[in-house]
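ok so heres the complex, two chains, lmk if somethin looks off
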Amino acid sequence: MEKEEFLRLLKEKSTRAEQIVLSYLPEKEGPQAKVYEAMGYSLAGGGKRLRPVLMRESFSLFSDREEWIHPFMAAIEMIHTYSLIHDDLPEMDNDDLRRGRATNHIVYGQAMALLAGDGLLNLAFETVADALQKRADDPAYVSRGIKAFGILSQKAGCEGMLGGQVADMLAEAKQEPCGEEELLFIHAHKTSALLQAPLMIGTLMGGATPEQVLSMERIGYRLGLAFQIRDDILDVTGSEEMLGKPIGSDEKNAKSTYVSLYGLQKAGEKVKQLSDLAREELSKLSKDTAFLEQLFSYLTERDY
Amino acid sequence: MEKEEFLRLLKEKSTRAEQIVLSYLPEKEGPQAKVYEAMGYSLAGGGKRLRPVLMRESFSLFSDREEWIHPFMAAIEMIHTYSLIHDDLPEMDNDDLRRGRATNHIVYGQAMALLAGDGLLNLAFETVADALQKRADDPAYVSRGIKAFGILSQKAGCEGMLGGQVADMLAEAKQEPCGEEELLFIHAHKTSALLQAPLMIGTLMGGATPEQVLSMERIGYRLGLAFQIRDDILDVTGSEEMLGKPIGSDEKNAKSTYVSLYGLQKAGEKVKQLSDLAREELSKLSKDTAFLEQLFSYLTERDY
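and the predicted structre for the whole thing:
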C-alpha cells in the first residue's frame, strides 16, 4: 500500500474508532452530568485511537460481526484515558498540557479529575459487563467475552500497565540509572501491556485459537518495546517542531533509556529487530494482515 | 438472639470475612510488591467488614456452596477500600487518620496511594474475571456471575457510589444548604449503593429470583439511608469517646443533614421507619433472616 493511501486509511479508521468509543459514554442529566463531562473531555481528547484501532483490525482478521468488538474497543480506550488523567495529576507527573489541550485537572480541578479517572476505569468494566449481559444467550460470545474480560483486567492492573507505572515511579525515586532488566520490565508493563490487550482481545473475540492469541501477546510485547525505544531515540534525534514537545528531556532528567544504556545505533537496531519479529509473527497468521503490518512499521519508524 | 451472642457472632463473621477478602490479595515479589503492600495496608485496615458480611449472609440464605461467593466478597471490599483511599487524599477530604491508623498517602505518599486505589478497583474486577474463568464450565455460575458483575460495576460507578461522591463534592462546593431531594440522592448513591450491591449479589449468586434480588435492592436502599441518618444524629447527640471521632463536625461545616433539615425527632422517626421497612421486607423472603435482621437493627440503632 502506498504511504499516502495508508495514512488516509489510518485516519478513517481512527475517526471510526473514536465514534465507536464515544458512543459508550452515557449522556445524563443530574448530579453525575459533571463527572461524565470531565470523563468525556479526556475521552474525546484526540490521539490516533491506536488501541481501539488495533483491536478492531485484529478482530476483523477473524470475523465480520463488527459489533461484537465495539464494547471492548470502548473499554480499552477508557482504561488508557483514565491512566493518562491520573498520570497528569500533580502528585504524579504534574502536567498541564496533553496533546496541546489543558489536562483534566487544569480544567475540572484535581478532585474531579481524580473521580473522572476512577469513573473511566469503572465505566470500562461496566461496558464489558453490559455487553456480556446483552449477549448472555450466545455461548460463543459469553465464553470469549469472559476470557477477554480477564485479559483486559489483567493487562490494566498491577500485572500490567499499573505495575509498569509503579515500577517507573520507584525507578525515578531511586535517582540512579536502572539496568536493562528493570527498563524492560517498565516498558513491557507500562507500554506493551495496553498494546497486547487490544491485539489479544481482538483476535480472541474474533474466534482465534488460544495459540493465535498467545502469538498476539508476543507481538504486542515486541511492538510496545519497539515503540518505546523509538520514543527514546526521538527524544535525542527528533526535532521539537515535529514532535510537538521538547526534546532532550530524558537526558535532562537523567532518565535511563535504551539510548543511554546502549547508544543510538544499537537502539535503532533493536527497534528494527523487534519490529521485524512482530511483523514476521503476524504474517504467520496467514490472514490479510497488510494494514496491521504497515501500521507496525509506521509506529516504529515514525519521526514525530 | 441475645445481644451478647449476636455481637460474638458478628465478630466471628467479620473475622472470617476478613480472612476471605485478604486471601485474594496476590503475594508478589518484584517491582509490584510495593503497590500490593500499599493496597494490603488499607485492605487489612480493620472495620467490621460490613459489606462482605452482608454478602455472605444473604448468599447463605439461598445456598451453601460458600466458595461461590468468596471472590465477590473480596471484590466489594476492594472497591469500598479503594474509595476510602482516594477519599482521604489531599485533593479530596485530606484526612490523615482513618480508624485510628495513618491513611494510605500518609504512609506511602500521595502518588502511591493514588495507584494503590486504582490497583484495588482494578483488582476487584480481576478477581471477578478470574472467578468467571475458573467456573466457565458451570452455566449457573456464569449466568449469575455475569449479572453480579453488572450489579457490582454499576453500583460502584457513576450511577452508584462514585456518582454520590461527585454529588456530595458539588453540593459542598455550592456552600449553601441542599434540599431533601439532593440529600437523598447523595446518600442513596454514596452510602446505599455499596450496601445494595452485597445484598443483591449475595442473593443472586445464591439462586434467588429476580424479584427477590430487586427486593434486596430496596432493602439496601433503606438500610443505607437509615444508617446515614443515624450517622447524622450521632454527630449531634453522640459522645466523642464512643464515636472515636469529633462530634458536631456537620454543624461546624454547615453541612446539610437530615437533622439540620428536619430536626432530631423527625430524623429519629425516619431511621426507625426505614429500618422497620427494611426488616419487614427481609422477613418476606421466608428464609432464616434472624441474624441479618438483628444486624440491621444493630447498624441503625448504634450509639457509636
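quick notes: Residues 67 and 245 of chain B are 37 Å apart (CA to CA). thats all i got rn
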